[in-house]
């Protein structure tokens, strides 16, 4: 018996020291970029060990997200990011999104996307297997020291 895997158009990779630790998958790159709004803003600093890549699956191209890709104090996607996405895939406006899937890239365990839970920062840095309530927002808050 085989398990059918869903293929997604795009992924958001959260990498620490060059190693992909977490991944969010979705068909719409715009929707994935919007998951990062609020983090790339003035006065909030990203841990330099972490990189956030918007990957276009099947095209073998990605964009490393930075403050320049967001506007209005990090609350919306910039024209620069829209242009970079359009240069990779001119049909992004036609991509229908669904619910994003967030997972531990090493174990493929599905994790929560939009729930904030208290976690130990050192455990996150060590990528401890003892964490039971890791979510996308927890990780992003720690990447950006929020």
Overview of this protein structure:
The protein has 146 residues and is an alpha+beta fold. The protein contains 4 helices and 8 strands. The chain has a 6-stranded antiparallel β-sheet with strand order 4-3-1-2-7-8. The protein has a two-stranded antiparallel sheet with strand order 5-6. The longest helix is centred in the middle third of the chain and has 10 residues. It starts with 9 loop residues before the first strand and ends with a helix.
Provide the descriptors you would attach to this structure in a database record:
146 residues; alpha+beta; 6-stranded antiparallel β-sheet; two-stranded antiparallel ribbon; 8 strands; 21% helix; disordered N terminus
Average pLDDT, to the nearest integer? 84
What is the rounded Rg?
15 Å
Globally, the shape reads: globular
Strand order of the largest sheet: 4-3-1-2-7-8
The unreliable regions are: 1-5, 116-121, 128-132
Count the DSSP helices.
4
Could you give the order of the helices and strands?
Answer: EEHEEEEHEEHH
Strand content: 15-25%
Largest sheet: 6 strands, antiparallel
What's the β-strand tally?
Answer: 8
Helix content: 10-25%
Give the N-to-C terminal Cα separation: 44 Å
Structural class by SSE content:
alpha+beta
């Amino acid at each position: 018996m085989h398990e059918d895997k869903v293929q997604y158009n795009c992924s958001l990779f959260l990498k620490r020291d060059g190693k992909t630790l977490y991944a969010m998958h979705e068909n719409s790159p715009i929707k994935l970029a919007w998951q990062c709004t609020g983090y790339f803003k003035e006065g909030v600093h990203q841990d330099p060990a972490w990189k956030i890549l918007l990957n276009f699956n099947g095209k073998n191209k990605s964009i490393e997200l930075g403050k320049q890709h967001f506007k209005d104090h990090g609350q919306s996607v910039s024209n620069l990011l829209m242009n970079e996405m359009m240069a990779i895939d001119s049909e992004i406006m036609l991509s229908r999104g669904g619910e994003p899937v967030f997972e531990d890239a090493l174990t493929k365990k599905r994790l929560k996307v939009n729930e904030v839970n208290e976690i130990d920062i050192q455990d996150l840095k060590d990528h401890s297997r003892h964490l039971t309530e890791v979510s996308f927002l927890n990780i992003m808050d720690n990447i950006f020291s929020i």
